[in-house]
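Hello Y.,

Per our agreement to keep a running log of every chain we model this quarter, I'm adding this entry. I've kept the format consistent with earlier entries: sequence first, then predicted structure.
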Amino acid sequence: MLKVDQFLRQDLAKAIVEYKCAFELSKEATALLIRENDFEKSIQYTEDLLKSLKALQKMKEKREMLERIHKVAVELQQQNVDIKTIVLKKAGI
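Predicted structure for the entry above:
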């Protein structure tokens, strides 16, 4: 079951599509491999499955990252830190 709270609202529709795709591909790849010995199609389905799973993982990580950023921003606000004064120390920024 897809846990919708793992994704951002704007990514939810895409996550649902990828989830359904991954679910169907996982069934189809297994069935082809076992019943029909169609290794070429099974490999293609498995590669497509992996793409869908990676897309889901990327969307999940995006939400987790934004939640961490929000948490830090709230903590800084509670400490009365002016966010405009924060200097980024990444790659010369």
